[in-house]
UniProtKB/TrEMBL annotation:
It comes from the Archaea. PANTHER family: L-THREONINE 3-DEHYDROGENASE. This is Glucose 1-dehydrogenase. The gene is gdh. Belongs to the zinc-containing alcohol dehydrogenase family. Glucose 1-dehydrogenase subfamily. The keyword Acetylation does not apply. Pfam families: ADH_N (PF08240), Glu_dehyd_C (PF16912). Keywords: Carbohydrate metabolism, Metal-binding, NAD, NADP, Nucleotide-binding, Oxidoreductase, Zinc. Substrate binds at residues 41, 117, 153, 157, 304. One of its GO terms (biological process) is protein tetramerization. It comes from Candidatus Aramenus sulfurataquae.
Length: 360
């Protein structure tokens, strides 16, 4: 079986044949991989920059990939909700089995830190021709979105984060006078797939959306912004023309990209930190801290997603395809072979929103 293998913390990735001898035991399913997505986490692992990446126990190699879409080839005894031919997306994080959150399927809020994540830490991922997985970690996907369902995993993380925004902001009356969010402004820093999904989510909720980057939009980004009625804003020109924000979401991980925006935040607003990076800094002084306190600004970090969030992401993809037609296909800017993936994993292609690997 062909797979893309890494050896963290070493730099580089390799396409090689592996034989894992994975039988289809009761409760498990064999899946033939169709597509896997490439994201910043994958590139961080390949580049040796993500220190928590690790192979499974008693192995020196990790099969990469946590954004997967596959088709069921075989089901084990006791599996009743899936059958051969079904399209499925696998959940990434698997719980510690000890804390309450993990025992009720909310391993995205694991309290021990002893979880594993497919293709990232302690568990082989989905950049391979096939894999066997527990049916409980698989989300069924309708064939109507087969062309974009590989985007389910990144969207699931956004679904979770936006849900936290709405939940936290119930600390007060935050909707507009007509009970909508049409008077609220959402700034999304970064216009990659995660940033694009945040923009789509907030637009769906009715927010006025501003897609922020340090450059002008690519042609695909221009189409996306225009279609969802968002404003693409080049922050290299300064911030003076921006209105006040009720939500700021940072997907870049660069403090220098979002710290300057804190002065543009309304009272009772919320800052969501989603992106991670390195080698960047910005000054946070006592005056800024005082402003956050005095203006009731909430700050929340968000990572990962539960199976519930994956299922909800499938619903959003289905709805958006009906509403926007082929808009989401524009997010997939490149489809490559496994052999081409090693180069794409080392260096982000120019103009990329999302690169996916086609396996079959």
């Amino acid at each position: 079986m062909k797979a893309i293998v890494v050896r963290p913390p070493n730099v580089g990735a390799e396409v090689k044949d592996v034989d894992l001898h994975e039988p289809v035991l009761p409760g498990r399913v064999r899946i033939r991989t169709l597509y896997t997505g490439i994201c910043g986490t994958d590139r961080g692992i390949v580049g040796g920059k993500i220190t928590f990446a690790r192979p499974p126990d008693n192995s020196g190699e990790l099969i990469l990939g946590h954004e997967g879409l596959g088709v069921v080839e075989e089901v084990g005894e006791g599996v009743t909700h899936l059958k051969k031919g079904d399209l499925v997306v696998p959940v990434v994080r698997r719980g510690c089995g000890v804390c309450l959150n993990c025992r009720i399927g909310r391993q995205d809020f694991c309290e021990t830190g002893n979880f594993v994540e497919a293709g990232i830490r302690g568990l082989n991922g989905f950049m391979r021709e096939e894999f066997v997985d527990s049916a409980s970690y698989l989300v069924k996907v309708p064939r109507a979105i087969a062309d974009i369902a590989v985007l389910t995993e990144p969207l699931s993380n956004v679904v979770k984060a936006v849900g936290q925004v709405i939940h936290i902001q119930k600390r007060m009356l935050w909707t507009c006078g007509d009970s909508s969010y049409e008077c609220r402004n959402a700034f999304v820093v970064g216009t990659g797939p995660i940033g694009t999904f945040f923009s789509l989510m907030f637009a769906t909720y009715g927010f006025n959306v501003y897609m922020l980057n340090r450059r002008d939009p690519s042609p695909a980004e221009s189409v996306i912004a225009e279609t969802i009625d968002a404003t693409f804003y080049n922050t290299s020109k300064g911030y003076a023309e921006l209105p006040k924000a009720d939500v700021v979401v940072d997907t870049s991980g660069y403090p220098s990209a979002f710290i300057p925006l804190l002065g543009k935040m309304n009272k009772n607003s919320i800052l969501v930190l989603f992106g991670t990076s390195s080698n960047d800094s910005a000054k946070v002084d006592a005056e800024l801290v005082t402003s956050i306190v005095e203006n009731n600004i909430a700050v929340v970090g968000s990572v990962n997603a539960s199976k519930e969030d994956f299922a909800e992401a499938v619903n959003y993809l289905t709805m958006w395809k009906e509403r926007y037609g082929g808009l989401l296909n524009k997010m997939i800017t490149s489809v490559i072979s496994p052999e081409q993936a090693t180069e794409a994993l080392m260096k982000k292609p120019s103009g990329e929103i999302k690169t996916v690997i086609k396996w079959s």
